[in-house]
Amino acid sequence: MIGRLNHVAIAVRDIAKAANVYRQTLGAQVSEPMPQPDHGVTTVFITLPNTKIELLEPLGKDSPIAKFLDRNPDGGIHHVCYEVDDILAARDKLKAQGARVLGDGNAKMGAHGKPVLFLHPKDFCGTLVEIERFTATIPPVRAFLPPPIVTAGQSGS
User: Would you call 132 a catalytic residue per the annotation?
Assistant: First the structure.
């Protein structure tokens, strides 16, 4: 059921300062800040060779990240996100095994424009878990086939 690690999310008080640490100090590829009002955060994604880091800054006083930062003034790891092929099947299987889905249990559009759900940290060793539907972009089979062999007197069609 569980797929690859999509990202690790880190809550920060100053997203520009944090992004600069990754860009200037570590030499990483860093996206522009993107407000996510439905989630109460502004996000920045740092692309790594094998996964991503998501920086989360509170957006509004009711932001869940603001509450996290109240409890963790220096910021820190907020959640991990795993990819799943079928988010509804994953949700149903997890619930059947006793995992608690946060919110109303229905997937919402995440920062990548894909459906996401959050799972209660008490059910996952103290870690807030996000699951995200993975949709692979698969090139057509033709892209993997060698070009046709054309002999004298034949056309390529």
Answer: no
Q: Which domains does the chain have, with CATH numbers?
A: 5-136 (3.10.180.10)
pLDDT digits (tens, 9 = 90+) for 105-146: 999 998 888 999 999 999 999 999 999 999 765 444 444 455
Phi, psi of 65 (to 5 degrees): -70, -35
Query: pLDDT tens for residues 15-29?
Result: 999 999 999 999 999
Residue 101, token pair as written in the block:
């889905």
- Model pTM greater than 0.70? yes
Catalytic residue of the set 54, 57, 83, 130: 130
